[in-house]
Amino acid sequence: MSPSSAVVGLVLAGGRSVRFGGEKAVAELDGKPLLAWAVDRLRSVCASVAVNARPGTETELLARALALPVLHDEAGDATGPLAGVKAGLIFAQAQGAHTLAVTPCDAPSLPDDLFVRLLAHARGGAAMAETSEGRQPLCALWPVSALPTVREALAGGAHPPTWKLLEQVGAVKVFFADAAAFANVNTRDELAALAARRARRD
């Protein structure tokens, strides 16, 4: 599938990464920042990719160095992924896109065909990945038409579960057999272990 201007990509990289002891997005795997792994996966289907990051962070600096638009959460929104999705939907709408493809910054082993399969099943609507371990709402497609629903959900400082909003807007669940591919890297030891496994495989 060729990159499409109808689909805008968003890397969610606004978390505080407390357990990691630093910003995960700038940590490297095989000499490449985790942020770049996520961006490259989105670029397989998206002509434009943006990064949701906190102001004044290393992640913001890296994104700008990579010539990527940086989106901040709107003032008053509770901290969490749904606030990042809202920022992404606003950006996608301004770009004239129909769909926002969302990925976390800290899951470098996600399937290469993740977004190709999600787009094939979504048919212009919402979709999210699912594994034997349950929903994967940070690996999802959001129609830009969902923006009013997301705005309403975040009103007054609320931040409901992201999966709940996806289900509310009719997200199709797309099953992926390799649950381990969706694992987040939460500590530096986990990142080192992943790098070691990749080296043995190669």
Structure description:
The chain is of the alpha/beta class. It contains seven helices and nine strands, in the order E-E-E-H-E-H-E-H-E-H-E-E-H-H-E-H. A seven-stranded mixed β-sheet has the order 5-4-1-6-8-7-9, sandwiched between helices. Strands 2-3 form a two-stranded antiparallel sheet. Helix 3 runs antiparallel to helix 5. The radius of gyration is 16 Å and the shape is globular. The two termini are 27 Å apart.
Features:
single chain, 7-stranded mixed sheet, two-stranded antiparallel ribbon, alpha/beta, 7 helices, 202 residues, globular, 9 strands
**Total beta strand runs:** 9
Listing every helix as H and every strand as E from the N terminus to the C terminus, the arrangement reads EEEHEHEHEHEEHHEH
Tell me the span between the first and last alpha carbons. 27 Å
The 3D shape can be described as globular
For the residues shown, what is the average pLDDT?
Answer: 92
* Oligomerization: single chain
Strand order of the largest sheet: 5-4-1-6-8-7-9
The fraction of residues in strands falls at: 15-25%
Total helical segments: 7
Overall SS class: alpha/beta
Largest sheet, in brief, is: 7 strands, mixed
Question: What Rg do the Cα atoms give?
Answer: 16 Å
Unreliable segments (pLDDT under 50, ≥5 consecutive)?
A: none
Roughly what percent helix? 25-40%
